[in-house]
Design brief:
- The chain has 370 residues and is of the alpha/beta class.
- The protein has two domains: 121 residues, Aspartate Aminotransferase, domain 1 (Alpha-Beta Complex), CATH 3.90.1150; 216 residues, Type I PLP-dependent aspartate aminotransferase-like (Major domain) (Aspartate Aminotransferase, domain 2).
- Helices cover 39% and strands 15% of the residues.
- It is built from 14 helices and 13 strands.
- It has a seven-stranded mixed beta sheet, sandwiched between helices. The protein has a four-stranded antiparallel beta sheet with strand order 9-10-13-12. Strands 1-11 form a two-stranded parallel sheet.
- Helix 8 links the parallel strand 5 and strand 6.
Length: 370
């Protein structure tokens, strides 16, 4: 498969490890390994201490998969496959699609959600939000986009990059549209459990529909991106077996130390989630105040889930030029909307890092509209 460069990841590669301040990161600060091991019970620590560095089970360490099922209401151990999150997108879409298929995909989105579809050769219709209605994604627009060869709907909630979270009623409408039209539903749920109000949390699509495939992992919600552990869940056993077989051509199996550390982390997930949510809520207030204080240059719809939001840049300059200028002048990296193929007037802002107040203070001294 020939596939174009991943714009967002290439942009991060250019700056992420070369500058001090990141204002667009989508993850929370990473926990260090000792913090995770300090959570472990004696039994859990014995697994770590006695770990054999050989191959692991292709579908994933059973004890890890068992912990993963506790994040769902219907998913069982045999309905989980462990892999890296990006690998999950690649494997699922390649297992599901043929070039004759039509796909409806949420947009803007993480590039691989639509780029792999396009590279397979599928016809694609983008499901776009209404910014004036608070980044509202209207389920009726999905229904209008269905064609005779539509095979798959791709969604992502909480949404990257807007931070939008639909109501339970709208989410159920999306699932029902897939059911009623016998379509597969791929649901990117990487930011699930980071709802700013837990009462707004949506069920996993894979719990609601037998032909839904849900993607999640440890990178965003749990602050463990370096473990490179994610998972696919689905009640569709035939499709899951196809994806497991496809994994033989990618990583074959997961990293043994990461599986054990991930298992320990999920055993103590509330500790990690609560630390991250406390930081997110505090930072979101700081960032919202900052945007209000710079309303001539910035505006946004305040997110209600996740670690990121998409702000409107109200200056006479393309967002890419603005971001390149800011990183050059003051060493603060901001992601422009061009990295999401979403015009030239928005920037993605992240609020999952502890140094956000320091970054905002530096940016406050800088004339945004100059």
């Amino acid at each position: 498969m020939k596939i174009p460069p991943f714009k967002l990841e290439r942009y991060f590669a250019k700056y992420e490890f070369n500058i001090r301040y990141l204002l667009s990161s989508s993850d929370c600060d990473g926990f260090n390994m000792q913090e995770i091991l300090d959570l472990a019970t004696n039994e859990e620590y014995e697994l770590w201490k006695n770990l054999q560095l050989g191959y692991t089970e292709s579908q994933g360490f059973p004890m890890l998969r068992d912990e993963i099922t506790k994040l769902y209401s219907k998913i069982t151990l045999d309905q989980v496959m462990v892999l890296t999150p990006e690998e999950g997108i690649f494997i699922a879409l390649n297992s599901i699609l043929s070039k004759e298929d039509h796909v409806i995909c949420i947009s803007p989105s993480y590039q691989s959600l639509h780029q792999i579809v396009e590279s397979i050769g599928c016809d694609i219709t983008y499901w776009r939000p209404d910014e004036e209605r608070g980044w509202y994604f209207d389920p009726k627009d999905i229904e209008k986009s269905i064609q005779t060869n539509t095979r798959l709907i791709i969604i992502n909630f909480p949404h990257n990059p807007t931070g939008y979270l639909p109501s339970l009623d709208d989410f159920q409408k999306i699932v029902d549209i897939a059911k009623d039209n016998n379509l597969l539903l791929f649901s990117d749920e990487m930011y699930r459990y980071l709802e700013h109000d837990p009462q707004l949390r949506l069920p996993s699509a894979s719990d609601l529909y037998c032909n839904a495939i849900s993607l999640s992992g440890l990178s965003k919600t749990f602050g463990l991106a370096g473990l490179r552990i994610g998972w696919i869940t689905t009640q569709n056993s035939d499709l899951l077996n196809e994806m497991i077989a496809y994994k033989d051509y990618t990583t074959i199996c997961s990293n043994a130390p990461s599986e054990i550390l991930g298992f320990i982390a999920l055993r103590h997930k509330e500790n990690l989630i609560n630390i991250n949510l406390k930081k997110i809520r505090q930072n979101l207030n700081f960032l919202d105040d900052f945007i209000k204080n710079h309303s001539q240059s910035l505006s946004w719809v305040k997110p209600n889930a996740g670690t990121i939001g998409l702000a409107k840049l109200n200056i006479n300059m393309p967002s890419l030029d603005f971001c390149e200028r800011v990183v050059k002048d003051i060493g603060v990296m901001i992601v422009p909307s061009e990295m999401f193929d979403y015009g030239t007037s928005h920037i993605r802002l992240g609020f999952g890092r502890a140094n956000l107040p320091e970054v905002l203070e530096i940016l406050d001294r800088y004339k945004l509209s100059q």
